[in-house]
Design goal:
This protein is an alpha+beta fold. The chain contains six helices and eight strands. Helix content is 34%, strand content 36%. The strands form three sheets. A three-stranded antiparallel sheet has the order 1-2-3. Strands 4-5-6 form a three-stranded antiparallel sheet. Strands 7-8 form a two-stranded antiparallel sheet.
């Protein structure tokens, strides 16, 4: 069950259901003891009610909000946007590749990528095209919420 797990530790006589829900940097954790709630099933029902209340009052991030989080190692200042300066092999020759790459999530924990050549569009042109492509892609995700559990279990990772 999502955000809920059973704790049975005989050495410390701990028998409970533990609810853990994280929203951004805040973590909501509470234990529901079998002894306090009158049995395993009653403790489970209390834990489910608490979990549902926490999720209702602190809903998950929308997909665009999640995608807008700038990671620590980001150097462009825009989440999902990277400047690439590298070398590739093309027809047996090494070729320098300069481009702005944009990425955004799609279903099943995968992501889509687009590249915009700096040599073709210029530094600012490639950057602006990549930025516009990301904005367009994120607008399509506006009605979806982020769920890390769905991507781990093979579901879509997106909810409507």
């Amino acid at each position: 069950m999502r955000n809920l797990r059973r704790v049975d530790h005989s050495a410390s006589s701990t028998h409970c259901w533990r609810v853990t829900v994280q929203r951004r940097t805040e973590v909501f954790t509470r234990d529901f003891s079998d002894g306090v709630h009158g049995g395993r099933e009653q403790a489970l029902q209390a834990a489910l009610a608490y979990r549902d209340t926490v999720i209702e009052t602190h809903p998950p991030l929308s997909k665009p909000d999640y995608c807008a989080i700038v990671k620590k190692n980001n150097r462009s200042g825009v989440s999902g946007l990277s400047r690439v300066d590298g070398w590739d092999l093309s027809r047996g020759r090494r070729m320098r590749r300069l481009y702005w790459e944009v990425q955004w999530p799609i279903e099943n924990g995968r992501s889509r990528h687009r590249k915009f050549s700096i040599l073709k569009y210029g530094e600012e042109g490639a950057y602006q095209l990549a930025l516009a492509a990301r904005e367009t892609a994120l607008e399509a995700l506006a009605s979806q919420t982020f769920s890390p559990y769905d991507t781990l279990s093979g579901h879509s990772g997106m909810r409507t």
